[in-house]
Amino acid sequence: MRLLSLLTLCMGLLGGFADAQSVRIKDLVEVDGVRSNDLVGYGLVVGLNGTGDGLRNAPFTEEIMQNILERLGVNVTGEQFRPRNVAAVFVTSRLPPFGRAGSQIDVTVSAIGDAKSLLGGTLIMTPLNAADGQIYAVAQGTVIAGGVEAQGDAARVVQGVPTSGVIPAGARIEREVEFEFSDLSILRLALREPDFTTAARIERVINANVGRGVAEMTDAGTVSIDLRRAGGGSPARVVVAIENLPVEPERRARVVVDQRSGTIVMGEDVRISRVAVSQGNLTLRIEETPLTVQPSPFGEGQTVVVPRTQAEITEEPGIGLAEVPSGTSLSEVISGLNALGVSPRDMIDILKSIKAAGALHAEFLVM
């Protein structure tokens, strides 16, 4: 409750400064074509201290181990070996934009079998493929696990996730993505949060600082830049000239609710129409206390269980019928609910009901 009140107070204090706040264009858009690519590979981690895969439960681990040994010239066909110091893993990474051959990137290693821990293991050379099936990087190195495990005869404790780890700079780029950025004639800026007003403001700022007619708003999420009208400069220099220009973005009215923690986050543009609110809690309690009836010691009869049920419905005091005037901001409603001592859980239910009634004019997101 105190946290929610503090957040509401902070938003109220910062509300006066929000209108004058400007953001750089580079923080609002993505340049078309300048993007990362996901990589994935299937490899083997060795050197584990008895915490690897059980090969009876993970036959794929034995298969990849045989393939690696055969590539190294070791014939293991028909051999029975079941070491506990190896684990099959998925290796994931991202190829950054303009990543050049020879550069190093970070990788994440995750066990896919029944290994207990990757602590202290070493990833054997693993090729990383992109969505087109081509190999773009090769990973190898010592795994830094993200947790620890301790086990005794009758107890086991695990902290963190020991079956997942990272290898900083653990992969080397072997192939570059074919993309000639310097040959572009039209540069497109994709807004991270599409909005017509924000796109129009970006168009206006670029035309005022680079040249008239250089930028054109295509839709709510795209602003196109004609590089031929931008003085004939290279696309990279045009991006440098525009990415630090300040723009005041238009924010969408939005309410975000996290039901697990009871957190409510809202924007200052959220408004509520005239609505009446009444809230209360009903508690239903049913208690079963069966009674056993037995015959007398020297009499004839049998033991009978007689059911006894006690049902009770109680209504806890809540909010009486209260009217919210039209045009009231949500922060004012939250402040009023806080003053009445409404819990965050009940507050979320009230906001859901107001939204269902059509009186909450904002995008309502429940996490």
List the helices and strands and how they pair.
Blueprint: H1 2-18, E1 23-24, E2 29-31, E3 37-46, H2 59-71, E4 86-95, E5 104-111, E6 122-129, E7 135-142, E8 144-151, E9 156-173, E10 186-191, H3 196-209, E11 215-219, E12 222-226, H4 235-242, E13 246-247, E14 254-258, E15 263-266, E16 271-272, E17 275-288, E18 291-293, E19 304-306, E20 309-324, E21 328-329, H5 330-339, H6 344-356, E22 360-361, E23 363-366
Parallel strand pairs: 14-23
Antiparallel strand pairs: 1-13, 2-10, 3-4, 3-6, 4-5, 5-9, 6-7, 7-9, 8-9, 10-12, 11-12, 14-15, 16-21, 16-22, 17-20, 18-19
Helix pairs in contact: 1-5
Explain this structure.
With 367 residues, the chain is of the alpha+beta class. The protein has three domains: 80 residues, Gyrase A, domain 2; 137 residues, no CATH class; 105 residues, no CATH class. The protein is 20% helix and 40% strand. It has six helices and 23 strands. It has a six-stranded antiparallel beta barrel. A four-stranded antiparallel β-sheet has the order 2-10-12-11, covered by helices on one side. Helix 1 packs antiparallel against helix 5. It is flat, with a radius of gyration of 32 Å. The N terminus is likely disordered.
